[in-house]
Batch of 2 targets.
Target 1
Amino acid sequence: MREQLLALKEEVSKALGSASTDQEVDQLRTQYLGRKGPLTKILRSMKDLSEEERPLLGNLANQIKQELADLLDGRREKIRDEERRRKLRQERIDISLPGRLPSRGGYHPLTTVTREIIAVFQGMGFEVVEGPEVELDFYNFEALNFPRDHPARDMQDTFYVAEDVLLRTHTSNVQIHTMKARTPPFRVLAPGTVYRCDSDTTHSPMFHQVEGFLVDREVSFSQLKGVLTVFCQTLFTPDVPLRFRPSYFPFTEPSAEVDIGCFLCRGGGCRVCSQTGWLEILGSGMIHPEVFRSVGYDPDDYTGFAFGVGIERIAMLKYGIDDIRLFFENDQRFLQQF
Amino acid sequence: MQVTLEWLKKYVEIEESAQEIADLLTQQGLEVSECVSVRPHLQGVITSRVVSLEPHPSSQGLWVCRMDTGKEDRTVLCGAQNVAVGDCVPLAVPGTAIPGGKVIEATTLHGVFSEGMLCSELELELSEDHVGIMKLPSDTLPGQELGRALALEDDVLGIEVTPNRPDCLSVIGVAREIAAKKQRELRLPKISPEEQGPSSAEASSVQILAPEACPRYVGRVLEGVRVGLSPFWLRRLLSLVGLRPINNVVDVTNFVMLEWGQPLHAFDLDRLEENRIVVRTARHGETITTLDGEERKLIREDLLICDAHRPVALAGVMGGLESEIGDGTTRVLLESAFFEPRGIRRTGKRLGISTEASYRFEREIDREGCLRAADRASEMMTSLAGGRLLAGALDVYPIPYRPSNVRMKASKVNRLLGTSIEKEKILGYLTSLEMDVRDEEGDVFEVTPPSFRPDLRMEMDIVEEVARIYGYDAIPTHLPEAPVSVVLAEPERRAEELARDVLVGTGFCEVVNYSFSGPDLLEPLGFPDGDVRTVPVPLQNPLSEAQGFLRTTLVGLLLDTVARNLRQRNRDLWFFELGRVFLPCADQVLPEERKMLAGVMAGRRYTERWNQPDAEVDVFDLKGTLEVLLEAFGIRGFEWNRSEQVSCLHPGCSGDILINTTKIGYAGKLHPSIQEVFEIEEDVYLFELEFESLASRVDRPKEYRPYARRPPVQRDLALVLDEAMTYSQVIEKMRELADPGVTEIELFDLYRGPPVSEGKQSMAFRITYQDPSRNLTDEEINRIQEAFLGQLLPGLGAHLR
């Protein structure tokens, strides 16, 4: 019987050698280990053995049974493994082929830049307010200390709809609407569309601005510098060189133009910065006492500052766009880049 | 305003380079936009003196000149006829390349050896003058480089002077800024004109009939003037700063205007009737022919300078043609006046004239400086054009200048700026800007700004001056203190972001179109008569007819965008715009500004790829987009009702969009005939919605609804229905009759054609049954479905397929 068992083991391992599929292995398993198989037969005949022999051969039989099972399992595992590897080899595809894409959408770059600007100022406690684009002369000019027949009005060529009704030339009209409707303190950001009769590669008859203003007691020019410094450092880089220089806007005093160091030439002078090494980014200033008077605030009670950023200007600088008209041509090849 | 560095140096010491001065001025608020170095290439051109002059032995018209060149004498042939012995002239020695590229060589001409060339101003590109050889001042030493001898090297600074700083529309004004910043002395020219002969009052008179419009008028009279070419330095200087030299009299008026900022005008006194000046407003319909030859029609507001009978100049704007200085002029009346700024601006604007003079007058000149400028010009004229200045000025000054006083506190200055500048320093800064400063007790001081600074009237104006001189960069940087507050995006903004996010995520590109539109983009859309969109708000001064009014819909411009892209061979265009339209309101001055959201789809559903089907977009892509979009705003199931109202859309494939019976817009396939108008050769699907109807829902509350965890059971059901039956009729009926255990009914197939009989259609639905609390058995579902069909089939007149 011992010989029978050992021969069986020999036979199985031989048979397994030629088995190459899962099914063949299963077949062998049934054939040798199944109810009608030789091992079962041997185990059944165990009862005929002597008391001494039975445990010895019983152990051997179980051991052989286990070994056979392991052999079969091992073989099957090997076959499966080979099968997996064969499959992996077969399924090799050219992964350099282009992917399957849905239609490619994109935000307009002006939207993206506006969102970025708003995010920075929201972080400094500014809330967003909108105002009308068709506006009365009072809100766009008169209340902002642009008197009639004053040369300051030449700074902004205006589209008219009727006498004293115009397309706003800046988002500063929101200052007047807000101040008339509220009591300080407040920090407001007013993004929007503005219009000027002007059209070339750097001027568009319609463009976009973000106006910001803060009114409170004891607001100082140094705070204006603080807020705008944080803004420029966040929108550009933390180490961007900044320059505040005097300028003139009728509705602010002192007024300041803010320049950042040209990031293309790093101050050396190039075409984009007109060889100056600086890029004009925004206009700003302390809100003019006359503006406060026109909305019924006492300039001795309140002070504040205001600023205006041209969205197209920032977008042109950020993305290296050299013609403002591209924003409004809406060519798909332009739009899909953003 | 253009100034040159050498000119500035006459009034203030400057050791800095032109670029340094440009930076300094920019930091002071006088933005230098241009800094051009002028370095004429005149190497090899030297000064020389004519020692002797003989006619060429054989060639008529040629002169043989013996030239002193400092070291040795040279012989030079010259064809010009304006050279005389003793003249100092420029000589280009052999080997010199004169501007224009010509190289001068020593050569024998008609038997005479010539070593160089005498040059005209034109040949040296120093001016347009080519009448003859250039004449240098008679005291010029021979043998110097011409560039050095004439100080031709200079730098021109182009300054953007803001409207509040008329004082800086002058070289002295700019020099004053440098002096103040650098704490250097401002050296003003000494003016002491020599008067001769009778009093001016005997030769002329000035009468002001409109003192409000002309608070001061100074006249000075010169006799025996010889009008001619200005000296080279003056012509050169004017040219450098962009003015065309005319003659010595006019050039002097321009020089003084640039030097002091006071526009001057010179009249030919003999061409003024009765030799006198009357300043008055125009009579309605009166005309004047200005220097440029245009006849100007006037209104009562315009101010005129007249002689005894007729207008001779449009005050402060432009002189008259008839009283102009000419070659024959010998008696000059020099005008140096102050005109009220607004009036000058109104007249200039109305007539479309802007001159160097009007530009300055409308910004307000220095009323106290009129006489000084007249004297300066008179002195220069007598020196350059000869003649004599009659005694006494005709100075009519009905409304004298009233200085303003500003009392202020140093502490307030510091509070506003966020600085801690000592009072003493503040006073120093203001004094350097020629303000009259009176120190008072403690914190207080009083300031009287100079008459040339009309922009300084109140405390804040003075604070700005302190800041400018102290330097903006020196002011510390602080953040405002404020209680911590959380600012969330406003609902409207969140709604905008959401709409954009959804559409961009679905594959749309956002466009931004102009708010302007024109008839070509509106009329084809065919909005019905009486629709507010057909009567847009027109602009009074549009850039073109195509941009003649404000848009009342986003659609026309979007279709134009599609057409433009197709012309560029761009394909698969999915665009949207979120923007305002402008709708006129009866009885309202301002139109209503309404935010709209519009989209277009044309081309394929997917970007063209090797492994993607080439599927054209159809109306259900449009509808799917709207479903996704509206669902993002919590709107499940909107109505899309066929409507005859939207005539720009295909009548069989379009309709109004309604939410709870409220119309919020329209959508569908573009009408083929409009496709043609816009020259679009493929199907276009579009929608336009009132954004407010979405935005108002952005903050709807969300609440979790438990979902069934038991396994769902699905049954398919194919109904054969009348062809006219719409999906929405069928689904409504099904929903009405469905058991509460039905959680979803989905159409998965729609079929027409055999074996389904003619006039019928088959709709196949997948019905999902699910009970939140227990497993449903087959028997239960069979029972439910049977009961359901029992009602549904007769209700729809359908049978099972």
Target 2
Amino acid sequence: MNDISRSIPKLDSVPKAFGNERYVNDIRYENALYAKTLRSPHAKARILRRRYPELPAGYHIIDHTHVPGENVVNIIADDQPVFAADRVTYYQEPILLVIGPDKRVVLKLMKDIHIEYDIEVPQFEWTDSVVHYHFTKGNLAKVKEQADKVIRREYHSGYQEQLYIEPQGMIGYHDGKQVILEGSLQCPYYVKNALIRTLNCADDYVRVRQATVGGAFGGKEEFPSLIACQLAVAIEVIRKPIRLIYEREEDVESTTKRHPSHITMTAYVKDNEILGIQSEVGLDGGANIGLSGVVLSRALIATTGVYTIDHLDVTGDVYRTNTVPNGAFRGFGAPQMLFAVEMFMHHVAAELKVDALAFRQRYLAKQGDHTSTGGTFRDPIIMPEMLSRVLDESDYLNKRERYASPDSHRGIGMSWVLHGCGFTGSGEATHIKARVKLHKRTTDEVEILIAAVDMGQGVKTTMTKLVATILDVPMSQVIYDNPDTNFVPDSGPTVASRTMMIVGGLVARAARRLRDEWNAGEDQWIEERYVQPDYIKWDETTFHGDAYPAYSWGINIVEVEVDPATYEVTVLETWNIYDVGKAIDEQVILGQADGGQLQGLGLGYLEVMNHKQGVIQQRNVTDYIISTSVDTPPMHNYLMDNPYPLGPYGAKGAGELTLVGGAPAVALAIEQAIGKEIHEIPVTPERIMELMNDE
Amino acid sequence: MNDITFELNHEQVTITADPSLRLLDVLRDRLHLTGAKEGCGEGECGACSVLINDQLANSCLVPLANVHKQRVTTIEGIATTKEGKLLQQAYSKEGAVQCGICTPGMMMASYALLKKHPHPTREQIQIGLSGNLCRCTGYNMIFRAIERAAKEGEGTW
């Protein structure tokens, strides 16, 4: 049998290259109506009165009064209404839909809607904590007394926009039996469950189909539920096909983003050794809590990054502000935390006047060590081997020495990262309870029935390859279609780097059973359900135990040049090495490595987004700058096998790992090039200028 | 309403429409050619790239009137050509396709680039694609796809 990692062309690459793939905006239903969202012009206000224009025949206004069930989008906290009813809490909050056959008429009607507001004073300061977590490891109070030195730093990061190239959108209709929605989304069952609550309907009354997704990165985790609920309410009332597709500005201004963060880290040191660390994490949740608590918990658990520190005191808060709600974005809280940790380890080493590399090596976690939450790193950790390889490939040590002179205007930075694979804690067992099915038809074709979505990361190809390899049949005999909730069981959302490890693990198990029970020409069904390994113990109230079943590991090395006149940063080259257990397809993982890193670098030095009085100041790609082909450095990526016993062929998570180390690596490189400590990302030319002028 | 006549993928078409309509909307909504995608609507992301008289253009910025008596080529027109297949195969082999929403536009930019520079340097490739954003791939696999298409299509471009 061939090594499963050997790359094959992606199954969907031909139709995608030739433009034949059907994205939501390419779906045409006959006589579909056009829908446009009316939004709040205020960050905080009470809605006093509404005056709607007289509507021509065939035109509709759909608002909160039409919601048959609960006017709430089922996420985690029930604080996002489907349509704002008596108050708005952020700029661009959706209030109603105007729907009709002609876009121009709809847009004109929008202008004739008058809503009277009582404007209130919005909250933009981070003072209203709506989620608070605290946990400890060891006994920090005791080591505080022993410390001969206390080193403290504060780190800040800004918004980051997912900027999938395909804006959010959904289209749907009623077929007489069901409300059927098709859209750009990561989590078909999140959407379905939200619909059931909003429509107050039976389980089989709604059907959610995934249209081919034009990029997501977390941005289509929870947000599509909002669009879906609005559209479903409209379809329920109007009973005609309706399209609700965002334009770019609308998408950027009103959809979830990466949480801005403030992180304070304090190290208690004795004889140049870190005894313990206190970290305080604040995230701007925006107007609604949404997933922010879960994002915060992932950040907090990553509080010591790849290092083992025996004594910890960790607190975190999500603050509610009258700004656009923040949510899932590849990395999910870890990028902010790992930026802080990696910078802090360097800053502590610098203050202690010790070599940063040797200093970090002393704390690098080893198999059997206790994690930040008192769990155990059970599996082999091969970071030392990875380090040795990537130091060689990049010539890091020589360059680090050579660029020590500020006249070089160059720098090289290195981040070490890990990413917990799958849902935090017992989430898989208690909340998700994944189920997968394989269906062998009488033709002996095998259908993979899972809710995992291909959003570009290659699920269609890798799952098909996995099943074909186990069954030892041609790939063409295995079928994976975009999930449709009428047919696929709930294998959970396509998030948290869980798809191959968890869902793929179940699919592999089902495939092995099918292989053993194979009856040619017979219709056969195999189902597998997630069972949590006994040794995983997690207490979500105390944050104690194994936060994740497994961890993926990575090292990023980034070399930069900083123009001494303009402070413009050029990323010259990068070297990256990853332990994802086992790549189910090497090229797929290398594609994740390239793309994830460019987003991570963007977070570190390029992508600026902010708000003024709650209004996002960047609305399109003209003013929210992401890396173009010209900004892209050569990236050298290496994979090392370290199979995880419970993953299919040893696979662990990969998608997020490739992003999380980009920001600290580039910030550390810039730090060396300019000879100043960096505490805030993105490190723009303006920020470098401030640092250089701040003698 | 005006009659606008142009050559589209080697065939003459006449559209009776408001000449200020965006070419992108006419292609997608009237002619059902949905290979060109709308990503930004401001001519910055390149997802809607087409060729007008062999020059790369963002069809979201082009009023229909501007293509009157001109030659328009879309991804659907490229797909059937030898060059189009070469490019597609190179994209597949190099892993240059992820979510795919930018890919038709990237293919158009790649095509235009290779027609201009049959043996492009890495820098020429980077500049040639600078009007096309991709959020998935980190571009490197697209660069390699173009290099492969140049090599395997030696003499074709």
